[in-house]
Design a protein that fits this description.
By secondary structure, this protein is of the alpha+beta class. The protein has four helices and six strands. The protein folds into two domains: 48 residues; 105 residues, Head domain of nucleotide exchange factor GrpE (Nucleotide Exchange Factor Grpe, Chain A, domain 2, Roll), CATH 2.30.22.10.
Length: 211
Amino acid sequence: MEESNPISETEKEPSQTSETAPGSEAEEKVLPEREILSLKTELEQKKDELRAAQEKQLRIHAELENYKKRAARDQMEHLRYANEKLLREILPVLDNLDRALTHMKESQELSPWIEGVELTYRQCLDVLKKFGVTPITSVGERFDPGRHQAVTYLDTSEHPENHVAVELQKGYVYHDRVLRPSMVAVARKPSGSTAPETPGKQDEKPDQDNG
């Protein structure tokens, strides 16, 4: 009777382990590729976040610079027109001097005082000019609603229509801003300004037609 040569379980294990070895090596190779892909994805996300943060920083910097410029302009404008209220209060005093001077020129009895009042009036104008206040030119100018305040119309052919015919109160400009508009009367064509035809012309036309 032949003896069996049984193979022990321990002798079979090496062959089984050798068969699974290649599979484990493949898994070891796949795992690093997945990690690399994950790291690349995370890196791209970080780059996007960094780019967004840089753009936000640039926007904030630009807004800050614009704010500084606006603040500087506002400050310069405030300093430029700081005396506006005071100068506006002085204008009625200047108006009274102008009226007094006009009245004195109409009366010969007050002629000795005219020179003194006129000198005072001119000095006031010079002081205002130093602060940037100048009179608005009105008479003969085309009516400008930004610089002139129309009080009434005046039927006249001396000035073109819609031009200032009379200045009732002088206006002033403070730098490039209207401190007070001029009160004016605006020229308007007289109602009967259309010249009538020469007498006899209408009678001559039928005769010419008949001839």
